[in-house]
Amino acid sequence: MGEVSLLASVYWQSEMDTHPQPQHFDDFGFSDDVVQVMRDAQKLDAYDVWNFRLSWRGVMGSEFDADLFVNNAFDEEYVVGGLNVIDSLGWVAETYGEPRTFGGSVKWNF
After folding, report:
1. How far, in Å, CA of 84 to CA of 96, rounded?
2. How many CA atoms lie within 13 A of 100 on its CB side?
3. Beta strands in the chain (DSSP E)
4. Interatomic CA distance for residues 85 and 70, integer angstroms
5. Phi, psi values for residue 107, rounded to 5°
6. Whole-structure pTM over 0.90, yes or no?
7. Taking the C-alpha atoms of 33, 16, 99 and 83 in order, what is their torsion angle to the nearest 10 degrees?
8. DSSP state, 74?
9. Partners of residue 29 on adjacent β-strands
């Protein structure tokens, strides 16, 4: 029948600060509303990303292999990087991780 395997993986990231000295936000001379936006952008939430893969080698005794996968299975929205130049430019940019993706492949061994 072939060989079937299942892979499950999880990546977890703890809460993270994006600015080394948030205690100085009040010293920049910005309004209270802007300082609150700065504080909100300063801390990133913890997140976890789950991935799954099902592999079938030698499908039904044939020369074919098949795979199905789903990455970020629970469609977690998370920040993987960015730029925090609040103190010099008053600007924060964030780069988000990939949304849920899924697919498959078939391979012929000859």
Report:
1. 14
2. 7
3. 3-13, 16-17, 43-44, 47-57, 64-71, 79-85, 91-96, 101-108
4. 35
5. -130, 135
6. no
7. 60
8. T
9. none
Can you tell me which residue has the tokens 């990546």?
Answer: 11
* Per-residue pLDDT at 41: 74
Residue 2 tokens read as: 């072939």
pLDDT tens readout for residues 51-100: 999 999 999 999 999 999 999 999 999 988 877 776 677 677 888 999 99
Q: What's the token pair of residue 14?
A: 């703890």
H/E stretch holding 36 reads helix 32-42
Q: Where are the domains of the chain?
A: 3-108
Tokens of 9: 């993986």
User: Closest Cα to residue 48, out of 28, 5, 26, 78?
Assistant: 78
Q: Which amino acid is at 33?
A: D
